Amino acid sequence: MLIAVAVNPRASFGRARHAGKDAAAYFRAAGAEVLLLCADSYAGLAQAVEDALEQGVDALVVVGGDGMVHLGLNAIAGAGAGGRRRVPLGIIPAGTGNDTARALGLPLHNLPAACERALESLAGGGRMIDAGRITAGGSSRLFAGVVSAGFDAAVNERANDWRWPRGKIRYQLAMLRELASFRAIDYTVTADGEQWQQGAMLISVANGQSIGGGMRIVPGAALDDGYLDLFIVNRLSRTRLLAVFPKVFAGKHVGHPAVRLRRVRTVELSAGNIVAYADGERIGALPMTIEVVPRAVCVLA
Fold it and tell me: Residues 22-27: contacts with CB within 8 Å, 24+ apart?
């Protein structure tokens, strides 16, 4: 059994480097042959993963956060499109957010338990889950968790420009800083063929439940129901938005009159000068089309 272990050394501000070596050692001790993949850049690591899949492996295990899940998902999808056997994706949570791992119920702070879960699932055939497909600018890519296009994406954009502080507090401070100047956005939304104009603070399209390390924007979302969940926060004053946002961590915002939820299969979003993020990774500017891809990937969970 050959397992490719891809490590983002910068995940969780560098703490994933040792996690990757520890995961590789665990799998070797269990009798697997391990191909440890590391690179100094996201693009370099993506190429290393692509090369490993070309050679042929029994599983791809990513060590890091949601960005590494995003990398692995798209690498596997690309390999499958080439006619080769699509390998399962394992996740060893070692990032800041770990929202996809959280949605899958994986151990978040116990590397040996996460590795053991991956091996057990590999022996049992894994679990099929949906993904979302984003099409924009003539290209497409998959995501596992959530596409954000609005206030939450602006917070992500700002936080990514900061080198300090580290951890979740960075995003909380970025949220407060962004709030000082943020204005509602005028969107054009088309959901399953129905189009309308929407003034909103944010719009997200979710396959998973949470963003930002546990902000449960769609607490009822399921990874394998064949749907995505459209999440809208209507136009609000900054004061009211600040009052609503903390409730998201417990999923208690759902009943708020400004919050709209709708199960969808396809969404088209358009707005001026709005950048979208998916799985915490910068995707680019709207417009874009987002659609569900049922049973897109086998995960070791």
Answer: 22/111, 23/61, 23/63, 23/92, 23/111, 23/114, 23/115, 26/111, 26/112, 26/115, 26/116, 27/3, 27/61, 27/115, 27/119
- What is the identity of the amino acid at 271? A
Question: What 3-state class would DSSP assign to 158?
Answer: helix
Overall average pLDDT of the 214-240 stretch: 92
pLDDT digit string, tens, across residues 168-210:
677 778 777 877 778 899 999 999 999 999 999 999 999 999 9
Q: Which of 107, 240, 113, 227 is nearest to 184 (CA)?
A: 240
Give the tens place of pLDDT for each residue, 54-113. Answer: 999 999 999 999 999 999 999 998 765 554 578 999 999 998 889 999 999 999 989 999
pTM beyond 0.70, yes or no:
yes
CA–chain centroid gap for 164, Å, is 22
Structure tokens at 165: 């502080």
Burial 11-32 (b: 16+ CB within 10 A, else e): bbeeebbebbebbbebbeeeeb
8 A C-beta contact, residue 110 and residue 18? no
Does the CA dihedral 98-276-41-50 come out positive or negative?
positive
User: Hey, which residues does 142 pair with through a beta bridge?
Assistant: 133
* Lookup: tokens for 298: 């086998």
Structure tokens at 121: 């699932």
| Burial class, 82, CB count within 10 angstroms (exposed 0-12 / middle 13-18 / buried 19+) | exposed
Is the CB of residue 34 less than 8 Å from the CB of residue 24?
yes
Which two tokens mark 206? 């979710």
C-beta separation of 112 from 240 below 8 A: no
CB 211 within 8 A of CB 152: yes
